[in-house]
Write a structure and sequence with these properties.
This protein is α+β, with helices and mostly antiparallel strands and about 375 residues long. It contains 10 helices and 16 strands. It is globular, with a radius of gyration of 26 Å.
């Protein structure tokens, strides 16, 4: 009943905002709060203000769509839901019980089913409570944390983002090592789910509704599997950076789009989760206080770090230059990114020579066979090892 009233209040606020041409929570509250208190006398006042916030978000998204083209359908919330700010509920962190007020003198208590993963955040007292989102099948609690100050880096970790791995170099006072975090099963999973969706579209060509439903389910499975692996890679990189007190150098790929190279290749490059991986690394780095530098990767795979000459051919696993420089092309790109981030040849007071990276053994940051979970449906061939 509470979620139904909240959904009704949100949809009423959306229509009121469209009529008055306002999209912010404060403007909606000033416009319709008194009328809504009369229409919804049994709703807790703080929940009513939260409904204005949800309605404002929907209206702002609608305004963005208007900028791309005409939209005539009035949006409304279909799914039962409710949102409450941290002042509108209480959480017993020890027992996992939520005390949620409905109206004056009437409260409902929700007991959460907690796992060890949930206990990690509930027992962390540095995390303060954020908003609470109540859905028919789950409860979502947001936590807030003040960003810690970044430590003073003692080493530098430069990473070149590739379709199947993160490759780069680690620079410290004692060693200069090539590093790698591989995720070779990600493009395999994407290709298999793509073929599965295409097969479903052919089988259900006579029923478009069923076809869309099955393809959405297949896409959800693919997204969860890819995100799981991206989280594993990001955690491995951040753990390595924390252990060595490193500053992480990443490519700025915000400008990158697939060129017209063919339908199959464009689809593969557009589905490459490079930005998702960078987003995971960046927000986890901010959470842990690890410094991150993003640099322009232009020609980083084709430039010689010794003579700065451009090699216009990318064929082969090694980069070879007329000056005699030869190295793995991914390591070569990592060195160029390091030189771009620290053009004076220094990284946090550490001077580096490109030749030091030429003959060392690659240090593995993430091994998919050790970190991936078993998937008995055959989507991935990775095996869990104890």
């Amino acid at each position: 009943m509470l979620m139904e009233d909240f959904r009704l209040a949100v949809n009423s606020a959306i229509r009121a905002g469209l009529n008055a041409k306002v999209t912010s929570r404060n403007a909606l509250a000033k416009l319709a709060y008194k009328d809504f208190r009369k229409e919804h006398p049994n709703m807790y006042a703080q929940h009513l203000v939260s409904s204005f916030e949800v309605a404002g978000s929907v209206l702002k998204n609608l305004r963005r769509r208007w900028g791309k083209g005409p939209t005539h359908r009035i949006p409304y919330v279909r799914r039962l839901m409710m949102k409450a700010e941290n002042q509108a509920y209480k959480l017993d962190r020890e027992n996992g019980v939520i005390d949620l007020p409905i109206r004056a003198g009437c409260h409902v208590k929700l007991r959460l089913v907690l796992s060890d993963y949930h206990r990690i955040y509930l027992n962390d007292r540095t995390l303060s409570l954020g908003s609470l989102t109540l859905l028919p099948d789950r409860v979502i609690i947001a936590f807030r944390k003040s960003l810690p100050e970044s430590y003073i880096p003692e080493t530098a970790l430069s990473l070149d983002t590739n379709e199947r791995s993160l490759d780069g170099v680690l620079l410290s006072e004692d060693e200069c090592l090539p590093v790698q975090a591989a995720y070779p099963d990600v493009p395999i999973i994407q290709a298999r789910h793509h073929d599965q969706r295409r097969s479903l579209q052919k089988k259900k060509a006579h029923d478009r509704r069923t076809s869309r439903r099955l393809c959405r389910r297949e896409g959800k499975r693919e997204r969860h599997r890819i995100e799981y692996r991206m989280h594993q890679v990001a955690n491995a990189v951040l753990g390595f950076a924390e252990e060595h007190k490193s500053t992480i150098v990443l490519e700025d790929l915000s400008w990158m789009t697939a060129r017209k190279r063919g339908k199959s290749l464009n689809r593969r490059l557009n589905s490459w989760p490079r930005r998702k991986l960078h987003d995971f690394i960046e927000y986890k780095a901010a959470w842990k206080g690890v410094p991150v530098i993003k640099v322009d990767p232009y020609n980083s795979s084709r430039r010689c770090p010794i003579c700065r000459r451009l090699n216009h051919s990318r064929m082969g696993a090694d980069f070879e230059c007329e000056c005699g420089w030869c190295a793995d092309r991914h390591v070569n790109a990592g060195i160029n990114l390091l030189q771009t981030a620290f053009p004076e040849g220094m990284a946090g007071g550490l001077r580096f020579s490109p030749g030091a990276f030429q003959h060392d053994v690659v240090m593995t940051l993430y091994d998919p066979e050790m970190g991936a979970r078993l998937e008995p449906n055959g989507t991935s061939r990775s095996v869990v090892q104890s």
